[in-house]
Amino acid sequence: RELQALPPCRQLALTRIARGLTQQSVATQAGIGEIYLSKIERGHRSLTPALERRLWAAIDIETVERAEHP
User: Fold this and answer.
1) Cα distance between the two ends of the chain
2) Dmax of the chain from CA atoms?
3) How far apart are CA 44 and CA 29, in angstroms?
4) Measured between alpha carbons, how far is 17 from 60 in angstroms, rounded to an integer?
5) Which of 24, 51, 56, 58 counts the most CB atoms within 10 A of its CB?
6) For residues 48 and 8, is the Cβ–Cβ distance under 8 A?
7) DSSP label at 42?
8) Which pTM value belongs to this model?
């Protein structure tokens, strides 16, 4: 609930960190650069709805892949 009160860029960052994912792995999966993801997570770059969906999908896909291949 507290997470939902945060801006989407912070929600993404905290969820990524909580799941043990690197910026590099999520950025690669989403098709963007690691530096760009870093700027998004810090609120220094805009987060379009389409990019937000790609990033959430990347976090979920990465989590599933890690669970399947320990």
Assistant:
1) 30
2) 34
3) 21
4) 13
5) 58
6) no
7) T
8) 0.81
From first to last of its 70 residues, the chain has per-residue pLDDT tens of 688 889 999 999 999 999 999 999 999 999 999 999 999 999 999 999 999 999 999 998 765 554 555 5
Q: How far is the C-alpha of 26 from the C-alpha of 63, rounded, in Å? A: 10
Give per-residue burial for 12-39: e unless 16+ CB within 10 Å, then b. Answer: bbebbeeeebebebbbebbebeeeebee
User: How many C-beta atoms lie closer than 10 Å to residue 62's C-beta?
Assistant: 20
Q: How distant, in Å, are the alpha carbons of 55, 69, 70 from that of 11?
A: 11, 26, 26
